[in-house]
Amino acid sequence: METPVSRTQRLAPYLFVAASLALIGAVFDESLITTSVFMVSIAVFMRGYAIMSVAAASRLVVSVRTSAGSEDDDVVVVLELVNPTRVPIVLAEYSLHYSPLLRFAGPSRTGLILIPPRGSVLLEFRFWGRTGTYRVGPLKLSVRDPLGLFRSSEVEVFTGVEVRVLPRVEEAVVRRLWTYTRSSGLVRSRQPGEGVEFFDIREYRPGDELRRVVWRVFSSQGILAVKELEREMSQYVLFVVDSAKGMWVGPPRQTPAEHFARIVASIAYYLCRRGYKVAVLVFNERSVHVSGSPASGEVGFRRVYETLARIEYLDEAINTTPLEEITRRIALSIPRERTVVFLFTRPSEDGREEFVVRLHELLRERGHKLFTVTPLIVSYELVNVPQWARAAYTVKLYEFLKKDLDSIGRLRRRGVRTIAVSPTHIPQRVVRAVEELA
């Protein structure tokens, strides 16, 4: 039967010293033999203790607390390791594994801990926030005896936990959208009725509420006028966000997938306040997540916002979902009413062009409108990055940019509507398309 512990490099010189003392004692001083026997007994005891420590480590009870807000906040994972046995785990080396896209912020993902009998120890890990779903774990322990003569193989004491980081809603973008649509006269869908947004001022009619009377107009012109509010519209908007592996190319927080989530969150916040019914579908190689039926107001935005945190990087694609299945899921998510669909993707990725064309034809047959949206990133904000890494990022960036532009040109020639501008200008272009089709 294979033992749960193995010897370390320290055991050989330790036993050599014990054997040397026994040999010298047999020739010169018999008391040294006693010392040699004692040393061997200590080694046997250390082995037995290491075996008991491994058994105690396998019975550890682990509880987890996570704190993950938006991408501006750190992700905090706190693990409490409880030892329910009477055996102290004097020397345990821990090692934490986590998603390769997370950047560790401290204090240390490896180290040595002591877990007292019937006691516990807390381990805290911090990561820089990045929009999406990430896995933290597993946590593995390797137990040693106090002298370091024996060491166990790694024992998985915690399988892991998923943390979801929400995208940032850029308030400056939302304010620009309000200013842009009002000042340009773009808001063609405005109609008088019940609502919360200001529409116009008109003359008083019998039955109007007195609280809507504009007294400054009456005092200056002697005309009794009332404020008319804007009626909420019911245009349907569906955002489709591609978070497959090819969408995670670039520095942290500047990959296309993270730009997608940030842009959609800001646009959805504006559209939900305008009364549009909004939904989002997020997909990668393994899964598809839908926010539910399109909704407006706080409910619609909250559904979209939380679903955007489901974008996920898969280091290895398992059970790959074919693009035909993605097309079917998108079709099922669209209501019968005319819907504007915005597909956020990089069309130069393998199979994406034909996927976009098939989706375009399917939606056109059903009376819907499809726009393919691709942020054209021309530079990265690189901080604390070596010069050689900056050069490598620049070369790779322009390589991807050329491929995207070529692919976008082919899609346009096949009749697919595309929005391909810098991430800063995408919100205005998307909102313009929504307002013009409303």
Describe the structure using short key phrases.
single chain; 438 residues; alpha+beta; Immunoglobulin-like; Rossmann fold; 3 domains; six-stranded mixed beta sheet; five-stranded antiparallel beta sheet; 10 helices; 37% helix
Please describe the topology of this protein.
Elements lengths: L4 E3 L3 H17 L3 H28 L2 E7 L7 E8 L6 E10 L4 E4 L3 E6 L4 E9 L3 E13 L5 E3 L2 E4 L2 E5 L5 H13 L14 E6 L11 H7 L3 E5 L6 E7 L13 H19 L2 E7 L4 E3 L6 H12 L14 H11 L5 E6 L7 H14 L3 E5 L13 H27 L3 E3 L6 H12 L1
Parallel strand pairs: 14-15, 14-17, 17-18, 18-19
Antiparallel strand pairs: 1-9, 2-3, 3-7, 4-6, 4-8, 5-7, 8-10, 8-11, 12-13, 15-16
Describe the structure.
- This protein has 438 residues and is an alpha+beta fold.
- It has 3 domains: 165 residues, Immunoglobulin-like, CATH 2.60.40; 223 residues, 3-Layer(aba) Sandwich (Rossmann fold), CATH 3.40.50.410; 32 residues, no CATH class.
- It has 10 helices and 19 strands.
- A 6-stranded mixed sheet has the order 16-15-14-17-18-19, with helices on both faces. Strands 4, 6, 8, 10 and 11 form a 5-stranded antiparallel sheet that branches.
- Strand 15 and strand 16 form a beta hairpin.
- Helix 5 crosses helix 10 and helix 7 packs parallel to helix 8.
- It is elongated, with a radius of gyration of 32 Å.
- About 1% of the residues have low confidence.
The strand order across the widest sheet is: 16-15-14-17-18-19
CATH architecture heading of the largest domain: 3-Layer(aba) Sandwich
| Level-1 CATH class name of the largest domain | Alpha Beta
Low-confidence stretches: 188-192
Q: From the alpha-carbon coordinates, what is the Rg to the nearest angstrom?
A: 32 Å
Describe the oligomeric state of these chains in a short phrase: single chain
Number of helices: 10
